[in-house]
Amino acid sequence: MKAAVLRVCALPTYALLVVSCSANVSPGANPVSGVERASSALPATCKPTVWASSPTANAVYGYIAPSSTPCVTLIGPYNGVNLNSPVGLALTKSPQWLYVADLYNDRIVVFNHKGVFVKAWTTNLNGQTFQPWGVCVTIHGGIVGVGNRQFNNSGAPGNVEFFKVTTANFGGPTGYATGILESDRFCAFDRKGNFFVDGLAYGSQGGGPQIAYLARAYINTPAQALVNSTLGNASSWSGMYSRINTVVTDTLSVGTTVPYANTQTVYNWQVAGPAAGPLTFTPLSPYTLTSFPSTANPLYQLAPDASGSVGNLYIADYGAGSVLSAPANGGPVAPYNSVTSNAGVITQPIGQY
Q1: In the 8-state DSSP scheme, what is residue 217?
Q2: Cβ within 8 Å of residue 100, ≥6 positions away
Q3: HSE toward the beta carbon, residue 46, CA cutoff 13 A
Q4: Taking 80 as the threshold, does the pLDDT of residue 5 lie above it?
Q5: How far is residue 46's CA from residue 113's CA, in Å, rounded to a whole number?
Q6: What is the pLDDT of residue 8?
Q7: Phi, psi of 105 (to 5 degrees)
Q8: 333 CB contacts (<8 Å, ≥6 apart)?
């Protein structure tokens, strides 16, 4: 299969644009026989603490230390198909699984915490092709959420989908929602189970990048309607997450990327509201990230580690081709590891909720 070719766009909003790629590929039709391999050997001591994706190298890397070579590289084949532009990543604590948004294969690929293939799910729904960009999980790991963009950035609008972690190999979503956004991108659940997603909005919703949500009562049910958070549109909303700070609160954190700037900002809100919504968002102090490499596309997925407010925030810098780290509540960034066109990053153990 011909690897997808992507280029960096000069616009600040979501740089992965299709130039050419193979025809849409869905997971193979043959059931898994045994455990399919990761693309590199799996050392007995390899339990990555940071995972990172490269959509242009068609690979996901597992690292155990900064400035190191990966101890595992995931390429494939899985269900007979290699990864093709992996973007967003997520982890669950129980089971200890890694979830990969495999963009051009229209699927979510599931591995164990060491990178051994478990299964894959299709994101295509009701005869429509949906390409997964972001993936996120609930606090107890029972539900996986996915933000799907428009097919090759054009045509029918994207959607969000939900899967049970028990969904079988080759299975499809058990719930979905549409509205507000033409292309749905990075997503997050908060501690109570509310779902958030950023992306490009319909013109009737003000256009540009915006943030939508689905209150927890409607998660994993079919034909739901996303709600506009009314948080406004940034130059480009990007990676998002929810975590417990020093004081336990239900929060949402979303980055906004300014091209060719050395300072980037993560905005924070305290979230409240009943199970059926509406939700309210009270602004908290933002995190300012300084000493950023000056690139057109400096910020994609964001991932806090498990040390809370005294820990680190990991940043996928697509333009600089590297994973960066910074103090969790803001400060200067520093290189962690080089990853070509880095789009997704997640820590193990996870630092969310």
Answers
A1: G
A2: 53, 60, 74, 83, 86, 88, 89, 108, 109, 110, 111, 135, 344
A3: 20
A4: no
A5: 9
A6: 32
A7: -100, 0
A8: 289, 290, 291, 292, 293, 315, 324, 325, 326
Q: Which sign, positive or negative, has the C-alpha torsion 126, 216, 302, 114?
A: negative
> Which residues is 210 bridged to in the sheet?
199
- The tokens of 320 are what? 């600089």
Q: What is the pLDDT of residues 40-58, one digit of tens each?
A: 455 666 899 999 999 999 9
Closest Cα to residue 334, out of 342, 326, 346?
326
User: In Å, what is the CA distance from 25 to each residue of 102, 115, 147, 157?
Assistant: 10, 22, 18, 19
**What mean pLDDT is reported for the chain?**
87
pTM of this prediction?
0.89
The position carrying tokens 């290699």 is 82
Q: Token digits for 190? A: 């908060």
What pLDDT, on the 0 to 100 scale, is given for residue 234? 65
